[in-house]
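Proteins fold reproducibly. Take a tokenised chain:

. . .
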Amino acid sequence: MASFQPQSANVGRTLARLGVQLPIVLTEDDAVVNGIGRLEAAARKGRETIEAITVSPVKAELARAMLNLLSMDFHFEGDNADMLRYGAFRRSRMKRRTLGTAYVIPVFRSRRNADFDIADPEHRAKWLQVCGDTVLDFGSGHGDEARMLREAGIDVTAFEPYENDGHERISFDRGRRSAEGFIHAVRSGKRFTSLFLSSVLNSVPFVSDREHIVRICAALCDGDSTLYASARSTKGANWQCHTRGPSLNEHGMCEGTFRVAWERGVTIGDLGVAPKVQKYYDRAEFRKLFLQFFGEVEICLKSTSIAAICRKPRPVNPERLAAALRFEFDLPYPGGRRLGMAEEALAAFSTRLGVSL
């Protein structure tokens, strides 16, 4: 009897959720040749029967090779790569009721994020002392954290090109408005005491895209600014269930998600809705990412998250910054649309930095 495999179980659950019914393939003595994941999915659902095909020993070897050993090599380029980019939008269920790790790590390193309350006068005073009162929320998602900070009297510039319209679709118009507001703040020379990348870099599918984002943030830092970034860690159960298998109370965490081969620590999920990548980081690679752009990088682990505290931005490389701005402000949208604000962004950053981009 074949043993259950997390990856196979994910496939089985995904097929069941999509209404795809495939029989399992058995030998004459009931050993599973193909379909162990579908069998587990059926067992977890409490199904008493499942369709099966029995093959002879000779055919079993052929079926095992043809059904289990063939592989496919997917390349995400062009439209396929863009689909993963705009699939990064924050899902409706991912609402924030408390500030995330990037916002809490400046003041609470060992306590739970939920223990920090920006509305508490003592907590607010401590946070302002460290982070200042004029901040940038880059990749603000639903805007929950920006709202909480604004309610506490903090000046927040928020940028979210892929805002969810509440129906699991991206709002192009809201993305444009957000970009316009961000570009206006940059052009005006507004100084940010702190910048935040809160749960952003997990959903950005490719290394070069992540580097573009961090490069833009670094260009907006001065000698007294600090960038706080947080992302999911490889220590968390969401990644661990792909490497050691889920425990009984964790099996749903990796349901419908699959490891990909193009980069370590990456999964893809939501295949039946809008494919979304998740990148999980260890200390070394998170530090390496930010050290390209900052002279001082401190890495902290907090629960299932990893955080970077970045200071002393490195000198701007105009050519590479221009490439980053052309990418970020001409992001793809469904239906072949693009954000189309690269020239405005290049002009704003040129004015702010006093360089020609």
